[in-house]
User: Fold this.
Amino acid sequence: MSGRVVKFATDQDKTVLMGNFEKRGWVQVSPEEDWNFYWSSVQTTRNIFNVDTGYRLQDDQVINHFPNHYELTRKDLMVKNIKRYRKELDKEGSPLAEKDENGKYIHLDFIPVTFLLPADYNLFVEEFRKNPSSTWIMKPTGKARGIGIFLINKLSQLKKWSRDSRTSSFQAPSAKDAYVIAKYIDNPLLIGGKKFDLRIYVLVTTYRPLKCYIYKLGFCRFCTVKYSANVNELDNMFIHLTNVSIQKHGEEYNAQHGGKWTVHNLRLYLEGTRGKEVTDKLFDEMNWVIVHSLKAMANVMANDRHCFECYGYDIIIDDNLKPWLIEVNASPSLTSTTANDRIMKYNLINDSLNIVMPNGEPPDVRWNKIPAKEFYGNYELLYDEELAQADSLERDSKSRLAGGQGFGTRGRDAKSKSQATWK
Assistant:
């Protein structure tokens, strides 16, 4: 098998991709020819898996999206799936679904209070009236790069925006526009007075059983203007939205570093200002958020063995050092804004390909998708369901022998020595 050359197809002409394919000596073919590896846009993936076209992938073909990746990457569906996951765990009586005296999830409270509009309009109004001075952020469900986002703190602003303000019902400006409205995190952790969020890359090679890897070289994206919760500044997106596609138009934008910090720098900064213990806890909680957001998708995702996905997670940390999952991107930008950015993204693709296609040989989707550790590069194994299950069986039997020591507060204080990840 090793004598065969990998044939790749792509509909994205990005230097970080092409450079990686060429370095491996892969040969480009057109999508109509026999390819082994396809780096495609989400739209192309949809066409390939379209029931009507009846495309059947072979054992030596791999593609970079799951057929219905949008279950996680569309803002409304992500929220719906996470809410469903919490309910299911609740029904099973799982300790993960434990709630506090106010009925809030203790362990699974990692997305801001969110409603879908127009469907949940009345529920939203009810929630808004409980706390009428709160700020909410409106986002179109299917758009990216900060397009169409705005903030409100009065119901009248929503009514005005709605197409038919004369009725009590709510209609989006155009029939096909669904929006999510989420409680705005108005106490973000600030560094140098500025708001930022984290972009963390997560590679999923299979959903059932779940196997995912986290990239160590994520980064923070900073706003160019100091944060202000002043209601007069609600329209100033340079204060509120970290998207580079927005910030790069700001007067304060620095093209040298692109308003970015590495996650490693963030960690050092937090250890210096808040201490190592709380910083470790924060990073552990971010891992927790990522794994449970993926577990929430496991039953709805079409777990096609020809697929893998490199997601871009957007997380905001509030000033209590609590991480909030804001959204997940199916096609995180591979455009580079700075030289460091280009090197990082080149390495991200390189390391992703090494895990998905170890040895750079034509793939065989029948193998069990655990590459040797030397292929990880800057990835770390975040969660491997099979190892975790084996692990918990072993722990159960040990705890029975030891007189039943159960899980810790969050069922994840036992970091096993094996590489099953944390629980």
About this structure: Confidence is low (pLDDT under 50) at residues 164-168, 404-423.
